[in-house]
Specification:
114 residues, alpha+beta, 3 helices, binds adenosine monophosphate, binds zinc ion
Length: 114
């Protein structure tokens, strides 16, 4: 069994509320939503963070971003707007070392972040 939490979600070993799937990506609802829509988009393959994915497989990063767009359409937030966040490393508070895009929307979001 892989130890990475999001790899276990990909394999089905850990349940998740799936939103969209593609051959190389998966989207599911954040377990602790910070907005009415809070979906995580990940590549099925394991990369620890955004720079690792970008360096290794930029085409896969493009697929992740394409799925972000599809999630926003499916969730009905593309018109009003939404935020896409890749927390990267300690100062950003990245807690899960499997690259993921947070898609946040459904309410006005404050800026700048704390
Ligand atoms: P980050 O701080 O960017 O690494 O974000 C990790 C996110 O994963 C947090 O927003 C958590 O709420 C979320 N999370 C942790 N465990 C799960 C889980 N089992 N299913 C869905 N989301 C999760
Ligand atoms: Zn992983």
């Amino acid at each position: 069994m892989p130890e990475c939490l999001f790899c276990r979600i990909v394999s089905g070993g850990v349940p998740a509320s799936r939103v969209l799937e593609s051959p190389r990506t998966l989207s599911f609802r954040d377990i602790s939503p910070q907005a009415p829509t809070h979906v995580l988009v990940i590549p099925r393959d394991h990369y620890p963070d955004l720079p690792a994915l970008t360096a290794a497989d930029p085409a896969l990063l493009a697929e992740v971003l394409s799925q972000v767009r599809e999630v926003a359409e499916a969730e009905g937030i593309s018109g009003r707007g939404y935020r896409v966040v890749f927390n990267t490393g300690a100062d950003a508070g990245q807690a899960v070392p499997h690259v993921h895009a947070h898609v946040l929307g459904g309410r006005a979001l404050s800026w700048p972040p704390g």
